[in-house]
Each structure stands twice: as structure tokens, then as C-alpha cells.
Specification:
Elements (H helix, E strand, L loop, with lengths): L1 H33 L13 H20 L8 H27 L6 H18 L3 H11 L8 H15 L1 H6 L7
Length: 177
């Protein structure tokens, strides 16, 4: 039941993000039409982020909703944790890439490397790897200091990795090496 509520919330949030992204992109296109000799502002590309994040959240909601149906092997906690790490990794990775490309600054690696780590942990958690469970706990702890959103997300991650029985059992399978 809780997984269905989380799925609906993620899908609704994703739809709002998608609409904000589309609205921003349409205003950027209108700006370009009204100023044929001027380049569209680089800030308009920022609206690509909510567009992509919206799509990711809609897909995430569908995955979690489907995980709640009978006959599926992965618990909803695995899907939720994977999505949280994947979205965080995507944000960090894309910020690093954009900083390296558009700002020509090497400090983009400060975001790029953690982005790769978060994406690797998301992959490991989805495949029930024991190392990913340990890494997920370690990566969630600093988030407790980022009140309120980081704290809430870290509590959700720690709950599913440490306290929720079905999620914990999925890491005890032979494939969890």
C-alpha cells in the first residue's frame, strides 16, 4: 500500500517537473523567435533539468507501482532506494559535465566523480549486491546534515537498507556478492 502511494507521489511530482520544463523550453523558443539575431540564453537550458528529472520520476513511479504487483521478486524498497541514488547520481554527473563543458572549469570533477559513485551504488542496489548496501549506508549518512530534504531522503534510505525486512532479505541471496 505504501509503495503505491510513493509511486503516485513520484509520478505526480514528475508530471509537475515535466510541465515546468516544457513551459521553460517553450519560453526559450519564443525568445529565440522574437530575437532572430540573438542567441537563446544559456539560462534557458536550465529548463532541460526539470524536463529530464520529470521523465525520470514518472518512470520511477511506474517502476515502483509495477513492483507492488504480485509475482515480482524485488521489494519496493529496492526500487525506491535505487531511484533515489540514481536521481542523485544523475544530478551530480550532469552538473559535473555541464561545469566542465560550459564553464571550462576543472572543479566539475567535484560533481562528476560522486555522480559516478552514486550511479554505481544505484546499480549495485538494484542487483542486490552486498557492497552496495554498505556503500548506500555510508553515502546516506552525510545527507542527514542537509536539513530538511537531505535528512528525509537519508532516513528513507537508511530505513529501507537497515530496518525494512523484505529489502534486507534481498541482500542475503547468493547474487548479493
Amino acid at each position: 500500500m505504501i509503495s503505491k502511494i510513493v509511486a503516485l507521489f513520484l509520478s505526480a511530482f514528475g508530471t509537475v517537473c515535466f510541465l515546468v520544463g516544457m513551459l521553460g523550453l517553450s519560453s526559450m523558443i519564443n525568445y529565440s523567435k522574437n530575437n532572430p539575431h540573438g542567441d537563446p540564453p544559456l539560462a534557458g537550458l536550465v529548463f532541460l533539468v526539470p524536463l529530464v528529472i520529470g521523465i525520470l520520476f514518472i518512470i520511477s513511479g511506474c517502476v515502483i507501482f509495477k513492483q507492488g504487483t504480485p509475482g515480482k521478486k524485488k521489494p519496493a524498497g529496492i526500487a525506491i532506494i535505487t531511484i533515489l541514488f540514481a536521481v542523485t547520481g544523475f544530478f551530480a554527473f550532469s552538473t559535473g559535465i555541464l561545469t566542465l563543458i560550459f564553464a571550462s572549469r576543472l572543479d566539475g570533477f567535484i560533481f562528476l566523480i560522486p555522480g559516478i559513485v552514486f550511479l554505481a551504488v544505484a546499480y549495485g542496489i538494484w542487483n542486490s549486491k552486498k557492497w552496495a548496501r554498505f556503500a548506500g549506508v555510508i553515502l546516506a549518512l552525510p545527507g542527514m546534515l542537509e536539513f530538511p530534504a537531505g535528512t528525509l531522503i537519508s532516513i528513507i534510505i537508511l530505513y529501507f537498507l537497515l530496518a525494512e525486512k523484505k529489502t534486507g532479505e534481498s541482500f542475503k541471496t547468493p547474487s548479493g556478492f
